[in-house]
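Entry, Tuesday afternoon. Goal for today is a structural model of the target with flavin-adenine dinucleotide bound, before we commit to ordering more compound. Inputs were pasted exactly as handed over by J.K., no edits. I checked the ligand SMILES twice against the vendor sheet because last time a stereocentre got dropped in transcription.
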Amino acid sequence: MAVGRSDPRYPSLITPWNRRFQGNPQNVHIVQSAQQIAEVLSDAVGAKKRISVRSGGHCFENFTSSPDIQELIDVSQMSDVYYDPKRRAFAVESGATLGQVYNTLVKGWAVTIPGGICPGVGAGGHIAGGGYGFLSRRYGLAADYLYAVEVVIVDKSGRSRIVVATREEGDPNRDLWWAHTGGGGGNFGVVTRYWLRSPGTDSRDPAELLPRVPATMINRTITINWDQLNRASFSKFLRNYCTWFEQNSAPDSRNANLWGGFFAFHQSAGPLGFVVGVDSGVPGAQSLLDAHCEAVMSGVGVQPVADTTDSAPYLDERNWQIEPYARSKDKAANLRRGFSDRQIAAIYRGLTDPEPTNPGACFAMAGYGGKINAVAPGATATADRDSVLRVYITGGRWSSPDEDAKYIKWIREFYRDIYAETGGVPVPNAINAGSYINYPDADLADPAWNKSGTSWAELYYKSNYPRLQRIKKRYDPGNVFRHALSIVPR
Ligand SMILES: Cc1cc2nc3c(=O)[nH]c(=O)nc-3n(C[C@H](O)[C@H](O)[C@H](O)COP(=O)(O)OP(=O)(O)OC[C@H]3O[C@@H](n4cnc5c(N)ncnc54)[C@H](O)[C@@H]3O)c2cc1C
């Protein structure tokens, strides 16, 4: 069904999570099947129209909403999640949100995937980009569970075709499967379905084909106020946090059961602290949490203003983060080990900058490593298999376009300062390890902000980029599927 500009549904369909971007396509196609998508694609390509596909709409950048997109395919009504006995795997239609995926897997079979923490994110973009969340140190990435993917592609002559690609060694389309384990959405074709199954598992019992869901999660949160800290104690706090992850992120570490998140809002706006969580069924769960908290607070010399422990059933909303649509600018990076002293000084400078900024402006880190790092960098398209933390920085959330310039300025300058020694971006070295394509940042492709000489593609894909380019050339030779950071066919 094509929805045009005068249709009352149109504004809802073209407004993505990041409200800074709003597309203006002639039509939004609400599709129900792979066949329908093939028809829409053939017509659009035949008419030389620029197309894009949207699932959950949670992209940080304008990949589905740039002004030159003329036909937008919306897969959100293709959202079934079910067990497929033929492939002995769970099928997830690409329009399903992560909330729908978790709900169905847990209620039907007591299993789950180690995906993202925001229930509104769409499987369409998330799984193809890697996907991680609070079970990832324990179980790996969402994409590590990808068994097969169905994609509608467009060939050289503009004809569309439905292809199923699996991770089976003899599959002639195995490369297309590989590209969807971290290559990122919007690059190869329209994904209609993912099939998920744990690698190396071949049980006839669906309840054994994905990780078993934790019954409850225990989370401990420690909060500090900025006025308790000076530069030295902030540095100690941040250093301790990173050191703990450096020392406890081997794939077989008991502490890979723990997930963790560090948050430091801008001084003018909010507090700082960290949260650590674990499946309550892990032996010694509480003592693992407590040992982590003790190590992070050791020698910082402040008493937390709040120290809370909460136990919540897996599906309980306290474990998840619901983020309303807003204007934002976000940046990310991977860390192989703790920041240098100079970088910590830059983080302190940016967060204590006397100029007040958006109340949501925040420097955050999430625990990485563990089972994620049990996979070789080339085994999937996600090359980042030796980091221990992922950095996420946001300029905040706001509603008026008039505020864009000042909040974006703050985050750009802050990030540039942290990575000043490597041209303003996290060029892979002993500490930094590039960035994450599911947290895209178009500034990495802008010479004004990336002066490193390392391309945006190397920052996101490292040594996997040439293979992704070859796969792109084979499956999307006309570069029909493209956006600000899409893979260039070669
Ligand atoms: C509030 C918020 C919280 C988040 N939390 C996490 C988290 O915990 N962990 C994590 O790993 N990531 C997280 N992310 C990032 C998220 O994984 C990515 O933004 C993801 O790409 C979003 O997918 P989507 O389908 O919702 O987005 P969309 O904007 O619909 O799509 C994103 C990209 O994928 C493409 N795409 C979408 N559907 C298809 C399809 N069917 N076929 C081919 N290409 C497609 C689009 O064209 C676009 O290029 C978060 C993002 C936000 C905004």
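The longest strand covers residues 146-154.
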